[in-house]
Write a structure and sequence with these properties.
The chain is α+β, with helices and mostly antiparallel strands. The protein has one domain (3-145). 63% of the residues lie in helices and 14% in strands. The protein contains four helices and three strands; from the N terminus they run αββααβα. The chain has a three-stranded antiparallel β-sheet. The longest helix is centred in the middle third of the chain and has 24 residues, at 80-103.
Length: 147
């Protein structure tokens, strides 16, 4: 994945996250009975609602870490799965940071009904998938170098 595509991917995910929160952040509807429900909630904490009420400290930490990831992407121009993973992490972090700065909380709305799990959003999915892709990218790149 080239540098421009990495940045376009990050921007696309950020826009999708913000639009989905605007459209679905107030929802209360079962989409697939027993599987998926849209449930708009305000999350003042970190992942899974941890550290609730500390949104400004979380915003500051998120801003610094996101800036570091973006700086790394800009300087190192990572490619492949690792580069895509970093783009997803940055875009997800930015999506939730925008909420914290503008609203004072993060809008979550995706609820899984078949398992007891936190309600989440598109940004959370991006960060999770990004972390997985970074690990896979590092492992496969390392293996390819040793062949």
């Amino acid at each position: 994945m080239n540098h421009r595509l990495t940045l376009r991917t990050a921007l696309t995910v950020l826009v999708l996250d913000q639009l989905s929160k605007q459209w679905l952040g107030q929802a209360d509807r079962v989409l697939i009975p027993g599987v998926l429900k849209l449930t708009g909630v305000r999350n003042t904490g970190a992942a899974f609602g941890l550290f609730g009420g500390g949104q400004w400290a979380l915003a500051a930490v998120t801003a610094v870490l996101t800036l570091l990831v973006l700086l790394y992407i800009w300087r190192a121009r990572p490619r492949g799965l690792f580069g895509l993973g970093l783009a997803l992490i940055a875009s997800g972090a930015l999506g939730n940071l925008v909420d914290r700065l503008l609203l004072g909380y993060v809008v979550d709305f995706i609820e899984l009904l078949f398992v007891r799990f936190a309600i989440f959003n598109v940004a959370d999915i991006a960060v999770t998938c990004g972390c997985i892709l970074c690990v896979v990218g590092v492992l496969t790149e390392r293996e390819a170098r040793h062949e």
